[in-house]
Amino acid sequence: MSNDLVKLSAKGVNLWFGNKQVLKNISVDFEPNKVTALIGPSGCGKSTLLRAFNRMHDLSPDARIEGKFMLENQDLYEKGLSVTQLRRRIGMVFQKANPFPKSIYENINYGLKINDIPKAERPGIIENALRESYIWEEVKDELEKPATRLSGGQQQRLCIARTVALRPEVILMDEPCSALDPLSTLKIEELIVKLKKDFTIVIVTHNMQQAQRVADKTVFMYLGEIIEEGQTKDMFANPKNELTANYVKGHFG
Amino acid sequence: MKLAARERIDGVARTLFRTTGLIVIAILGGIFFMLVWNSIAFFLKIKPMDFITGTQWDPSGEHYGILPLLVSTCLVTLGAMAIAIPLGIGTAAFLSEYAGKRWKNILKPMIEMLAAVPSVAIGFLGIVVLGPGIAAVTGQPNGLNALNGAILLSVMALPTIITVAEDALQGIPHTYKEASYGVGASKWQTLTRVTIPAAAPGILAAVMLGVGRAIGETMTVLMATGNASAFPKGFFHSVRTITATIAIEMGEVPYQTTHYYALFAIAAVLFLITLLVNLVGEHFVNKFRKYHSA
Ligand SMILES: Nc1ncnc2c1ncn2[C@@H]1O[C@H](COP(=O)(O)OP(=O)(O)O)[C@@H](O)[C@H]1O
Ligand SMILES: [Mg+2]
């Protein structure tokens, strides 16, 4: 079962909200230190799939999940597994930047406190995370400023820093640039490409150019199913499936 | 033709609403004027200093010190808040974060019903249930004291505190909670370190409204606190609040005497306190709104 080329995987996954089936027999592998893009028209279940990996659906009582999710050899839905530990290993960056209504510093410090990281180590980790997320230079003199006063792009990079600070193995990103201007988007894309050295990244995106710029592999979903997956280059150059072809050429979405 | 009719209705409605608005303002102004006018009449006879610092309220002996009444009111209110604030916020947090549909469906109507219980009924419970209970525990002849009043007032302030605090907690964007869960926080950590701090202005508003409710309550404290006019000595002693004093003495006092004016003066003090509490509460509610639109 253990495979060096698989970091994170889903196998035979079905998911319902109430009696509406949103994911249908999904099986997918994500390779370590690669960026994988999840693309597909709105409502096809990309976010739902992404959130299943860090068990965010635990919070919605009407979600029902079948199938197997693995992080290396760890069954993510194993009985008795600590969800909070799991979420530390699988971090998440959300669609809309969601800094806490606290200072810039405290936004990152919060996760460190929660995870019992010794006090003495925290300032260093925070600086490092801000540097890694290419926002240090912009905020180093005003770490006590409320994070909500940052621009949208800065807020999203702060949220990435918050995730990175905990050294997760996998970072899930749900359309992290959808609310940002082109310049901020480019900055975040650069950041994503640099981060894959240390992390396995799965990114949901609506933007075909973005998928081609950042992703090594791409997975195309449609109505809750995976239609096609492969190397990003191949998929955009020679899509095998007609639906994929239409979608990547922008005929619908 | 049709247009003219509609405009006429508009005009009538406008006049009607403006009139009712003016009536409300006039009534308020009238009350305020009456309070101030009679208080001035009082202070022409009694020195303000004697009123504020006097430790004795004994109208028949011409002693008009507000302190014992003020301390009584504060004692009962603080006691009530010491009970109602933790209980209210706890219940609000339970309702908003932990309770399933079934619990909510049971608890919420019960809380609303609690708000609808007349204060005289709660006062009655204080006399026949809580009083003997406190007496039995403390070994006093009766349990009509500040503690009794505080407990009853806490029950009366709870619905307000719970409802407003729950609204505040519910109003916290879901994204904050997701962010917190996302870094591995537990439900409890998320509640205490993210949700409650973010809702703090609304929760403070809830507390202020609760305080306002407790300070102004008359019938319950009148029935449950024993109304001894001696200077209050603590929770296990009988006290006499500003509201109870007014209610007790107003019926018997001859018009336009110093005593009569004195009751207006303490009413004015009560008015100032509740006004202040409401202003502070309002301030936090507004801050809370601003914070949400941001
Ligand atoms: N918590 C939920 N409860 C009920 N239905 C949901 C919930 N979350 C998502 N859905 C539904 O699941 C489907 C897939 O949604 P989503 O995964 O957000 O799509 P995508 O991210 O691809 O746009 C949509 O039809 C959406 O309405
Ligand atoms: Mg989505």
UniProtKB/TrEMBL annotation, chain A:
InterPro entries: AAA+_ATPase, ABC_transporter-like_ATP-bd, ABC_transporter-like_CS, P-loop_NTPase, PstB-like. Keywords: ATP-binding, Nucleotide-binding, Phosphate transport, Transport. Signal peptide: none annotated. Gene3D superfamilies: P-loop containing nucleotide triphosphate hydrolases (3.40.50.300). CDD domains: ABC_PstB_phosphate_transporter (cd03260). GO terms for biological process: phosphate ion transmembrane transport. GO terms for molecular function: ATP binding; ATP hydrolysis activity; phosphate transmembrane transporter activity. Residues 8-248 form the ABC transporter domain. GO terms for cellular component: membrane. Transmembrane segments: none annotated. This is Phosphate ABC transporter ATP-binding protein. The lineage of its organism: Bacteria, Pseudomonadati, Bacteroidota, Sphingobacteriia, Sphingobacteriales. The gene is pstB.
TrEMBL record, chain B:
GO terms for biological process: phosphate ion transport. One of its GO terms (molecular function) is phosphate transmembrane transporter activity. It is found in: Cell membrane. InterPro entries: MetI-like (IPR000515), MetI-like_sf (IPR035906), Phosphate_PstC (IPR011864), Phosphate_Transport_Permease (IPR051124). The keyword Transmembrane helix applies. The keyword Cell membrane applies. It is a multi-pass membrane protein. It comes from the Bacteria. Its main location: membrane. Pfam families: BPD_transp_1. The chain crosses the membrane at residues 21-44, 64-95, 116-137, 149-169, 190-215, 260-280. Residues 70-281 form the ABC transmembrane type-1 domain. PROSITE patterns: ABC_TM1. One of its GO terms (cellular component) is plasma membrane. Keywords: Cell membrane, Membrane, Phosphate transport, Transmembrane, Transmembrane helix, Transport. Part of the binding-protein-dependent transport system for phosphate; probably responsible for the translocation of the substrate across the membrane. Belongs to the binding-protein-dependent transport system permease family. CysTW subfamily. This is Phosphate transport system permease protein. It comes from Hufsiella ginkgonis. The gene is pstC.
